[in-house]
Design brief:
Blueprint lengths: L4 H10 L19 H7 L8 E3 L21 E10 L8 E8 L7 E3 L19 E2 L2 E2 L11 E8 H4 L10 E2 L1 H10 L9 E5 L3 H5 L3 H5 L4 E2 L1 H9 L4 E4 L17 H10 L2 E4 L4 H10 L3 E5 L10 E3 L3 E3 L1
Parallel strand pairs: 7-9, 8-10, 9-11, 11-12
Antiparallel strand pairs: 1-15, 2-3, 4-12, 4-14, 5-6, 7-13, 13-15
Helix pairs in contact: 1-7, 1-8, 4-7
Amino acid sequence: MALPDDVLELAARVRNWGRWGDDDEIGTLNLITDETVKAAAGEVRTGRRRTLGIPLDADGPQIGAIPGRVNPERTMLTVNAPLTGDPSEFCTSDDVVTMGIQAGTHWDALSHVSYDGNLYNGIPASVIDESGATRLGIDKIGTIVGRGVLLDVARAKGLDRLEGGYPITGADLDEAAEFGKVTVRPGDIAFVRTGQMQSFLAGDRMAYAIPAAGPSLQSVQWFRDHDVAAVGTDNITFEVYPPERDDAMLPVHLLHLVDMGMTQGQNFDLEGLSADCADDGRYSFFVDASPLPFTRAVGSPVSPVTIK
């Protein structure tokens, strides 16, 4: 079933195809320039650091809803094995991990989703085959480093956590920016807090999965108007789930990744950052959230680090 006419009209309004050239493969990450990164360094005042990644282990957030997207399983290959056979000399331990690339805290590549046969910039979805994404892979990105902003929608409303299934709108994002006294600038890396992560941290993976508050179709134009470079959320679905309407499945994914070319990600732990920002009253910071360069991958794990 094709997307409804009003969703297609919104897609046309926010579309960035050709904005950075017909061969572009990184979309809104072009908005992160040498100048914006240099300016972002000014956000560092204390050197205080925080990671936004969740642990990579078998207790991750995946519950089997997507076949094969397994939580990380780490096993030992060798344990104190002597390289020469003599244990008094060099001995080594090594391990191996099996996981879904998008199982934990991760970014979606622009090749992650398609509709009507198209990926971002009008690139045909056929560029993805059994070898992976021959174009628009996560390896095309390189770095995601710059000024981060926390849009704490839950705290702005005086809540620990938004109600499950709450559709975040552009007005909600304005409210969060005003609450944090932060101006969202072109090239910023935004993190939207719903409080959903609290369920995962409490060990309730089912409650974490569904229902979840998240960005809705009513937020898409906001991200386009503010020229946000990338956005991460603290839930497993990124956008509001169950979907806000019956005639469009995960439409925010489609408009962000396919039309806008905006990198998005899920499972960011924003709880500690929320408390930190509330304590010092500063909702902007320097952040390095660069993906791992998996060749032809349609996503990547990430261990984001904020510095204030």
